[in-house]
Write a structure and sequence with these properties.
Layout (H helix, E strand, L loop, with lengths): L5 H20 L6 E3 L4 E6 L2 E6 L6 H12 L3 E5 L4 H8 L6 E5 L2 E6 L2 E8 L6 E5 L2 H12 L4 H16 L7 H4 L2 H11 L6 E7 L14 E7 L4 E6 L7 H11 L6 E7 L5 H9 L5 E5 L7
Parallel strand pairs: 3-4, 11-12, 12-13
Antiparallel strand pairs: 1-2, 2-3, 5-6, 6-7, 7-8, 9-10, 10-11
Amino acid sequence: MPGADPARRSQLLGLKLNTLVRDHLGSDAPTTPGVWPGGAALVRDGVAWVLAEDDSQRALGRALAWARQQGATELHLLAEEHAGLLARRAEYFAGAVPLVERGVLIGEVEGLEVCRASRDASTGVCRLEVGVGAHDREAFQMVHGDVPTPDALRMVIDAVKPHRRPGAEPHPLNRLGAERAIRAQFVRNPSLVGARLLAPADPPITRTNVKDTVPCVAAGETVSGEPVVVVCSTGIDLDVVPWAADARSALGRDDARLVLALPARDGAAVTLALAASLRRPAVVLLRQDDGVWQ
């Protein structure tokens, strides 16, 4: 396609986008095509769709501006390259934070997974599944299968968000993924762990169930520019220190400062001793009852 003349290439990209949208939504519907240099754009049912083929790493701002110009209520930006960069930047505008974990695109609200991209085994089409965990996604699809995906996602976000706020009353939705809520707090405010910036990072092994309590990882730089890896965990876990050391190594940051972040009640003496016994010891930060990290 790069070798095609500009008019022909624009036509082909428009056809490609129409096919992607039709396959994603499962049906044809009237669309309003738009002009997008180096790609294609359209609006369907008030939702803007942009396919960024050229210079995709700089596409988000232009796509947002175009969607606003069309009066669209939602934007779907499709790109084969720089997906991680675009996902990170999109989180500043989205109700759910997008992140890629071990090659899987998910969306979280304060650390709790509310959607996940999956590929249909029979058709190969990618789609966004909405819900907290696999069973919830299946149940949600059965009950609300006729609800457009953006509306379904908004429903779940609105249901989850009040329970994920600091100080919320105990609820199953704030007991799930408590360690990831800690990570979300650090990513939003890296100075809590002495960092200049932090971003979610891959764990050393894949998490198989959203309901399992599994440590999670963030990586970035300290205020002095040194690499740092932060591992967040909850509960008494005798394996958290080896897990954290493995996470640091898997990220190729063996020389990074390693920080373990735990609620104070979970900072068992054995955990502190194991953290200090690493060849490159880890710093342990404990969250006190007043929310202060020490």
